[in-house]
Amino acid sequence: MDQGKLSRIVAAMNEQDMPQMIISDPVSIFYLTGTWIAPGERLLALYIHVNGENHMIVNRLFPQKKDLGVEITYYDDIEDGVEIMSQFIDKTQPIGIDKTWPARFLLRLQELGAGSKFVNGSVIVDTVRQIKDEKEIELLRISSKINDDVMAELVKYANQGYTEKELNAKAREIYAAHGCEGVSFDPITAYAGGAADPHHVTDDSKGKRGDCVLLDIGGFKDNYASDMTRTFFLGEVSDRAREVYEIVREAEARGIAAAKPGNKMKDVDLACRNYITEKGFGEYFTHRTGHSCGLEDHEWGDVSSVNEAIIQPGQCFSIEPGIYLPEENLGVRIEDLVIITEDGCDVLNKYPKDLIVLPFED
C-alpha cells in the first residue's frame, strides 16, 4: 500500500477516534494499493486498524499477482466472506463502514457482533482523497490538457449537422484516439433546448442557425478524470444570448478568484451565484457551482452555498456556473477544473472562453 496515503488515513482515524474501519469502494482501494479490483456482487474489503494490523478479504476469482502491501485472505463462493473477515475485527471497538458497502454485508457483520458500534467511515478516506499529492496533481494536469485537445477537435463537428447522439459518439471516439481509458461521464452534447436543461438526455436533435451548443466533456487518462464545459453558437448569436454568455463568463471568473486557501467552499459558489442574481438570472442558476474531481469525476466535497469547509492547497474541483432558459431554448454553462495552490488556484483548462460563433450553413 501507499504508505504516505495510509499514514494520512490512520492519522485522520485517530483524530476521529475511529480505531478500525472497512474500505470497500474499489476506487479507494485503488487509491491505496494502485490495483483495480472489480468484485461485482462479491465481497471485497480492506480492513484497517490504527495499530497497523491491516487485512484484505478477496474472492478467489480475483487472485492478486503482485504484492499489495497488505496480507490477503481469499474465500470462495461457498464460504461466508463476512464471517471470515469478522475474525480480524476487534469486537470491543467501534468500526467505520464505507458508504458504498452493500447492506447485505453490513447486516451480516452486525449479526456477528463484529464491532461495538458501526459508524460511517467514508468521511475519513474522502477527506484524505480531497488533498492531491504532487503525482496526482501532475496526472490531473495531463488529463485536462488532453481534454483541451479533445474539445478543440470535437467542436469542429458541432456545426456539421450531427445529432446530439452522433456528437456524443464522436467525443468518445476522440478520447480513445488520445489514449484515454474512456470518458469520465456520459458526454453532454446538447443543442438549444437540450442545453437549457441541465438534466437533458442526449437525443437525436440537430442544431440550427442561432442555436447554442453546450459541450460538457471529460475523460480518464491514467485513471484521473478531466471535466470541462464550453458553450458555442451556430452561425449567429442574439444580443440576449450574448448577454447571458458574458454574465456566465464573468460569474465563473469571480468564482475562480474566490478559489483560494482560507476561503470556504461556499465562498466560491456565492461569488458566482450572487453575480448571476445581481444580473437578474438567479432563479435560472439551478445547481451547485461545482464538485471535487480526481479518480472520479464527482468526488466528495462540493462547491455549494452551504458547504462551510475551508479550502486547502491540493484540492481539485470544478467551477461551473450556468444560466438555463428553457422557454428561450438557451442554456449557457462554462466550466473549468482548478487546483488549489498556496496562494490561489491554477486553472487546469486552457481552452478559450471567449464567445465563439461557429460557421454554419443552413
From TrEMBL:
Q: Which residues form the Creatinase N-terminal domain?
A: 6-131
Domain Peptidase M24, chain residue ranges per copy: 138-342
Where would one find the signal peptide in this protein?
none
| Annotated Gene3D superfamilies | Creatinase/methionine aminopeptidase superfamily, Creatinase/prolidase N-terminal domain
Alphabetized InterPro entries for the sequence: Creatin/AminoP/Spt16_N, Creatinase/aminopeptidase-like, Creatinase_N, Pept_M24, Peptidase_M24B
Per the UniProt record, one Pfam family is Creatinase_N
Q: What is this protein called?
A: Proline dipeptidase
